[in-house]
Amino acid sequence: EEEIPEDHPRYQDLITRHRIENGVEKGITHLQGMHAEGRGSAFDYLLGEETIPSADAAERAAAAHLLLAEQPVLSINGNVAALVPGEMVDLADAVDADLEVNLFNRTPERIEAIAEHLREHGAEGVKGLTADARIPNLDHQRAKVDADGIYAADVVVVPLEDGDRAEALQEMEKTEIVIDLNPLSRSPQVAEIPIVDNIIRAVPNMTAHAEELATASEAELRAIIEEFDREHALEAAEERIRNGV
Ligand code: PTJ
């Protein structure tokens, strides 16, 4: 990362690409994560590489949900771990959530490497290693979760999530917060709170909102959630991507 000059017009995008490459080299990120990153990068380019107002509103509503939650869990995959490990630890601290490693392409080696990577960034008690419960209606490998983690959670943050799993979690009647740069993908389409923004910007902004709302009353938090319009957020993101407005 030191080799990229900060005034390079594509600075953030190049940093992101490097982090994913390093993640693959360290055994954290799956090779498919590079394809996912390429797709995300194209959508971000069309969004103007900025947090649009409807995404900021979604991030604020997500923070309110997390603060109200009894058992919030933040799900970590290979791309999330490579891109925003410290930022996820900060968000977990701000809203008192657990971190759970949950992989689409599950191997014990990657689970352990990601858990260790999170611990290096200050995480304590990383979940996802026990995998003693199953999400109903999903094939065996992809259904594995911790009984006292995602399985029991009332609010889950699932960044860059696979559509089948997003739907299965929705069927479990959890409040689902999805971060995904593609507003047409199934995961944001089924989520209660779809955040169409780069995870690199979304997570620190959720933490900032959570810190600002730390002393807000339950009524204030509920009002923020009530005001958020998920249909509008999805439409606004698509409108920006298609028409640049
Ligand atoms: O580590 P694993 O095994 O759990 O696998 C993780 C990946 C991401 C490889 C796996 O879940 C996958 O293949 O996901 P998809 O189906 O490619 O979906 C990834 C979605 O995330 C796409 O819609 C991308 O546009 C979006 N995306 C990619 N990078 C970012 C992003 N969204 C937000 N921020 C990003 N930086």
From TrEMBL:
ATP binds at residues 17, 39, 180-182, 186-187, 198-199. Keywords: ATP-binding, Coenzyme A biosynthesis, Ligase, Nucleotide-binding. Its EC number is 6.3.2.36. It comes from the Archaea. Pfam families: PPS_PS. GO terms for molecular function: acid-amino acid ligase activity; ATP binding. GO terms for biological process: coenzyme A biosynthetic process. InterPro entries: PPS/PS, PPS/PS_sf. Pathway: Cofactor biosynthesis; coenzyme A biosynthesis. It catalyses: (R)-4-phosphopantoate + beta-alanine + ATP = (R)-4'-phosphopantothenate + AMP + diphosphate + H(+). Homodimer. HAMAP family: PPS. Catalyzes the condensation of (R)-4-phosphopantoate and beta-alanine to 4'-phosphopantothenate in the CoA biosynthesis pathway. Belongs to the archaeal phosphopantothenate synthetase family. NCBIfam families: phpantohe_syn_Arch, PRK13761.1. This is 4-phosphopantoate--beta-alanine ligase.
